[in-house]
Amino acid sequence: MPKTSSPSTTTTTRPFIFQQLYQLFTILYKYFQSTLFIKTQTPVTKASTTVHNSINLQYYKGKTLVLDLDETLVHSVRLGTTESTVNASIKKKTIEVTSDKQSILYEVYKRPHVDFFLSTISQWYKVVIFTASMSEYADPVIDWLDQDQTLISQRYFRQSCLLKNGNFLKDISIAESDLSKVCLIDNSPSAYELCQENAIPLPTWISNPKDDCLLDLLPLLDALRFTADVRSILSLRDPKHI
Ligand SMILES: [Mg+2]
Predict the structure, then answer these.
(1) What three-state secondary structure class fits 228?
(2) Domain FCP1 homology: where (predicted)?
(3) CB within 5 A of ion ligand 1: which residues?
């Protein structure tokens, strides 16, 4: 079952994360200029291009992107409880979950651009879903997001979370033990309490049909895959803003 969540559960706003991303980009650009691409200032020969590409490929290989599910990629409403406020233009699917011989219906809505986002990042990263929801609910939702079973490599559910003060914490080392190669995108700050240097906070999504947050993340994710250690970039943010 999805965790109860609301826009007020995160203090991050869209303009704020936009500002954060801009700052990160500035840092990334300077970083690449000063390290990885410094050789482009000298005449490029065939041999040097080969070396350069192999360096990029070395960093590119084996990065893992861990994604939260509810209010990050989708939003679900239990039918018969609250009236849905989600715009009718949003893609949705009704999912039936059986628990304790009871059938519960959920209307699941896709965050805008989620299909494009998943198909793009799956070409860059090994994509893992790590959700605090139960597998009985989350499995069919993930099946809907990845209908050809080609985008998402692994799934972790509530039983893989650590419960602390009523919050579900996510230990992403179960997905990738080398923390230099893994990022966690999550709308809930408590989820990345154990791995703040690896966190990419995302504003909670409930119903806004014009939400572009997933698209806004793509340039950052495109750049991060070429870093030797994602934490060297992500940890440069002010910890108060994580
Ligand atoms: Mg969430």
Answers:
(1) coil
(2) 58-224
(3) 68, 70-72, 187-188
Structural domains of the chain ordered from first start: 64-74+111-235 (3.40.50.1000)
Query: What is the pLDDT at residue 19?
Result: 67
Distance 201 CA to ligand 1 centre (A): 10
- Residues that are catalytic: 68, 70
Report the distance separating Cα 71 and Cα 85, nearest Å.
14
CA distance 7 to 20: 19
Model pLDDT for residues 106-138, shown as the tens digit of each residue: 999 999 999 999 999 999 999 999 999 999 999
CA of 225 to the centre of ligand 1 (A): 23
Residues in the chain: 242
The Å distance, Cα 12 to ligand 1 centre, comes to 13
173 C-alpha to ligand 1 centroid (Å): 19
How far is the C-alpha of 143 from the C-alpha of 27, rounded, in Å? Answer: 37
The residue type found at 125 is Y
What is the rounded distance in angstroms from the CA atom of residue 193 to the CA atom of residue 82? 30
Q: Give the pLDDT confidence of 140-172 residue by residue, as tens digits.
A: 999 999 999 999 999 999 999 999 999 999 999
Instruction: Say which range, 55-59, 71-75, 117-121, has the weakest mean pLDDT.
Output: 55-59
The CA 70 to ligand 1 mean position distance, Å, reads: 4
